[in-house]
Automatic annotation (TrEMBL):
UniProt keyword list: Membrane, Transmembrane, Transmembrane helix
Organism from which the protein derives: Anaerocellum danielii
Membrane spanning stretches: 75-97, 109-134
Protein's name in the database: Zinc ribbon domain-containing protein
Keyword Membrane in annotation: yes
Length: 139
């Protein structure tokens, strides 16, 4: 049992501050841990990142960690998700010019629907990502 130096109250062995007065019991964390994926800093008792689930490494404060928040594969997926429907619209216009109306109309309609769905999902994911960034706790 730890005894509070301020109010002499008994506290559990794992407590870092007094439950009664809030005074610090003994030494504060000698080191902290950092998530190498997302860059969040945690106390030394933490083992896994709350945000991404990655393992934490010891953080000494002097090392400048460079966290890669840009994933190039995601960029390519956005480009392809826009490029294919645009190709569908162009092909639909070509088929309409050849007087193949059914195929041309179906290509254009499908492409427009895919672009609208992509835009709605992008807005949804951006709003979810910004909301999760606002709720992120940095220790």
């Amino acid at each position: 049992m730890k005894i509070c130096p301020k109010c002499n109250e008994l506290n559990g062995e794992n407590r870092t501050e007094c439950w009664k007065c809030g005074a610090i019991l003994g030494p504060v964390d000698k080191y902290k841990k950092v998530c190498l994926r997302c860059g969040l800093i945690y106390p030394q008792k933490a083992e896994i990142c709350d945000k991404c689930g990655g393992r934490l490494s010891v953080y000494d404060g002097s090392t400048n960690y460079k966290f890669s928040r840009n994933d190039s594969s995601g960029c390519w997926l956005y480009i392809i998700a826009i490029l294919f429907p645009l190709i569908g619209i162009i092909l639909g216009c070509v088929y309409l010019a050849r007087r193949e109306d059914e195929l041309g109309k179906s290509l254009i309609i499908t492409s427009v629907v895919v672009i609208v769905i992509f835009a709605l999902l992008s807005l949804l994911f951006v709003s979810c990502a910004s909301a999760s960034l606002l709720n992120t706790k940095i220790y």
